[in-house]
Amino acid sequence: MPAREQMSAVAPVTATSAVRLWPVRYRLIGLTFALSMLLYVDRVAISTARGPITSELGLSDTQFGWVLSAFALGYALFQTPGGLLADRYGARLALTSVVGLWSVFTALTGLARGYVPLLLYRFLFGAGEAGAYPTCARAFYNWLPVDERGLAQGINFSGARIGAAFALPAVAWLVGAAGWRMSFYLLGGAGVVYAALWWWWFRDLPDEHGSVSPAERTLIAERRGAVSKEVAASPLRFSALAGSENVWIAMGQYFASNFTFFFCLTWLFPYLQRTYGLQAMQAGLLSAAPLLGGAVGNWVGGTVVDGLYRRGRWRLSRQLPAVVGFVLAAAGLLGSLAAEQMFAKVLLLTVAVFGADLTLPPSWAFCIDIGRNHAGAVSGTMNMAGNVGSFITSLAFPYLLVWTGSPSPFFVVGATLNLGAAILWMRARPDRAVVTARA
């Protein structure tokens, strides 16, 4: 795909006046937004239910850290395979399979009777979820013009933050009302319903969807280039991924982003509850604030990405929000160390997550830029590295706390990683695609 094709989005649109006010491709974004909400409700439920789970199963903090890490490890290891599945078989079949699989293991979490089964179910749950975002990236490549992908990714990931923010108090209530086991059964059932809805509504190409008007099909084709039903002109080799500097940049910076965010998703709730002696609902509401800050960061980041791209600043549209975001994340983490008052600490952590999530739309748009017809595999590889960061976070916080008696070293490490990621972005080149076998 030539570079000029990527920059065609600024051309005036004349044939598109007939496109309906709410195009079908926007409904796709709404459906992936709902997917993100469900994905993170299921993911954060384990943290919210930590109290009754550890009490009933007799788990220590470090054992529970391994339970959280088991998910992150499974999620990380199956990212690239999940992306390859979407590239090979299409987003319709891939996402139906992914959501159905993770929903089964969400429900099975409620059957765990000991530490080892809980570890196994959470690992398999993570493996099941792994293909979700790479598959969304593949769907966006087929359905969205280049100048709409940044905000689309921002909206998509804001669903994750809103879902997690909602889940913290809501699942806390559900666990109290129905018990932690029944809560996981109900969440698994909701996922099965979504999988059926996706299979019924979605099609791999807009040309195959009966609701897409001829005018919208023309708009998509003109502003992003035609996509063949053929998955790829050539297979993507491991050497192409490993030999791409852009891929290593994407992986390194996403490691830092997830290291920051995953703390708020896993350990912030119990950390605030224990530090300030809060009830579960109080801790849930306070823990939701950084996640809502992350949702706003995604919207702002996506808007900046698309706005700069439309002005012809392709490279800057990826770099600027990412660099600013990582600097803010570092500042928020370091600032939280000096804050002893509860609300001040939560506010500064909200700044940190806002900054970390400001980097997500440029990260995923960048993967589509360089991956193109292999967008699923490339974005999955980036997300794999990011979730190695999640895996380490789940263990680093409790172990550093045990070894040092203070949470401060964890936040210093996080800030250092964020500053390093800002430097990495200076070398990112969205115009340099991953080289494939026939390139």
Verbal overview:
The protein has 439 residues and is mainly α. It has one domain: MFS general substrate transporter like domains (Growth Hormone, Chain: A). It is 78% helix and 0% strand. It contains 20 helices and no strands. It has helices spanning 3-6, 24-48, 50-57, 61-77, 79-89, 91-109, 115-129, 132-143, 149-178, 180-201, 214-224, 238-242, 245-266, 268-276, 280-310, 314-338, 342-358, 360-371, 375-404, 408-425. The protein is globular. The N and C termini lie close together (10 Å). 59% of the residues are buried. Residues 1-19 and 226-233 have low confidence and may be disordered.
The number of distinct structural domains comes to 1
How many β strands by DSSP? 0
Largest sheet: none
Please give the count of helices. 20
Mean pLDDT: 85
Question: pLDDT under 50 segments (min length 5)?
Answer: 1-19, 226-233
Q: What is the overall silhouette?
A: globular
Calculate Rg over CA atoms: 21 Å
Measured by DSSP, the beta-strand proportion falls in under 5%
| Gap from first CA to last CA | 10 Å
CATH superfamily: MFS general substrate transporter like domains
CATH class: Mainly Alpha
